[in-house]
Design brief:
By secondary structure, the chain is of the alpha/beta class. It has two domains: about 1-200, no CATH class; about 215-370, Nucleotidyltransferase, domain 5. About 45% of the residues lie in helices and about 10% in strands. It contains 17 helices and six strands. Strand 3 and strand 4 form a beta hairpin. Helix 2 packs antiparallel against helix 9. It starts with a helix and ends in a 7-residue tail after the last helix. This is PiggyBac transposable element-derived protein 4.
């Protein structure tokens, strides 16, 4: 049983065995007290990770505190149950590797804390560590899965404890079996799937192994978005969005600012948005279901822009986004940034109607439409 239970620790760094049926089965067979002990043990790592992420103190001051907490929390105690004592030893050995001897820490190893800290995965702020230590830490945290798996395991195990506590003592296994599951899809909704998706997308890095490195600078001069244009451009991503969904009669053109303050040449500042800084995306969505049908990222102005890739002008953006829905009889809704008389006429020629507010200073707006004097409605 022990080997299956502690299989959760390799999963922290490799994501292997996340849906290990054997481990789940043994966790369901644990007694209620043992289950609570495992929850407490894993819960420490979750709390330590949150403390590290929320703290504004310098890393060199905070990490030793977490290490000391780890020492106190994971030291096997005489009052521990045999299973919990073995689990502590296993976690210590798995965390510290060769630095672990018996049940004590040797030196001031930072591995336990750093393996939990999502913010320092690139080790950019750990220059005070020697190269051997840095390499060892990097092995522990390179997959970015530690805190995610611990939070999932803690949440699921707590559900199992609650179920065991409220169930009849003669059938603890059946009560705990349903809520405790490490599958990506859970029976209690999409909470785990959503959390897993949001966490992993923060650590994705898109790389095209077939791209010609010798032409990289030339491609970037023509298109700042060239690195992932084939993925999120008009070829794959947008086609997939519209291939399997038939929108309603009303579609809407708008823009989204995805919060981002990293290193990027086309970050947009929009003071009226809550995020202020981020990546600007013009999108087309279904008015009823809010399903996104197409998207057009704003990649700034390139040094030598390619006219086929850079869509500029409010009217051109709308026509580009609604192109797959020509002659469909749908209505296109947009705000005053996009609405012009010329755009309405062009969309009408494509059997599309348009509804939107218009700015009074538009040159093509009739004088009768600029004033409300004498209007009945």
């Amino acid at each position: 049983m022990l080997e299956s239970i502690v299989h959760c620790y390799p999963a922290l760094t490799t994501m292997a065995g996340v849906a290990d049926r054997e481990m789940i089965r043994h966790m369901e067979e644990l007694e209620k007290e043992e289950l609570r002990a495992v929850v407490s043990l894993l819960g420490f790592f979750d709390d330590a990770s949150k403390q590290l992420s929320a703290s504004k103190q310098p890393t060199r001051f905070l990490v030793p505190l977490i290490v000391e907490q780890s020492r106190r929390h994971l030291q096997p105690d005489a009052a521990d149950r045999p299973l919990v004592k073995k689990l502590k030893v296993k976690l210590l050995r798995g965390t510290l590797g060769d630095n672990f001897e018996g049940t004590v820490f040797e030196g001031d190893s930072h591995h336990p804390a750093l393996a939990l800290h999502l913010r320092y995965r690139r080790l950019a702020q750990l220059t005070y560590l020697d190269e051997e230590t840095r390499s060892c830490i990097q092995e522990l945290v390179k997959t970015g899965a530690a805190a995610l798996f611990i939070r999932r395991a803690k949440s699921k195990t707590q559900s199992a404890v609650a179920a065991v506590s409220s169930a009849d003592s003669t059938a603890p296994t059946a009560a705990a079996a349903a809520p405790f599951s490490l599958e990506l899809e859970s029976e209690d909704g999409d909470a785990d799937s959503k959390h897993f998706f949001e966490y992993t997308t923060q650590h994705y890095h898109l790389h095209n192994p077939y791209a010609n490195r010798t032409t990289r600078e030339e491609r970037q001069r023509k298109d700042e978005f060239s690195a992932i244009r084939e993925v999120i451009g008009d070829s794959e991503f947008n086609e997939t969005l519209t291939r399997h969904y038939n929108p309603s009669d009303c579609i809407t053109v708008d823009e989204t600012l995805r919060s981002f303050r990293g290193r990027c040449g086309f970050i947009t500042f929009m003071p009226n948005k809550s995020s202020k800084y981020g990546l600007l995306i013009r999108d087309l969505a279904d008015d009823r279901s809010r399903y996104m049908l197409r998207m057009l990222p704003y990649a700034g102005v390139a040094q030598d822009p390619d006219p086929d890739l850079h869509v500029t002008g409010a009217a051109s953006i709308v026509k580009h986004l609604v192109a797959p829905f020509k002659n469909s009889g749908r209505n296109v809704t947009a705000d005053r940034f996009y609405t012009t008389i010329a755009l309405c006429e062009e969309l009408l020629e494509q059997n599309l109607t348009h509804v939107g507010t218009a700015q009074a200073n538009r040159l093509d707006l009739p004088e009768e439409a600029k004033t409300t004097t004498g209007r009945e409605h």
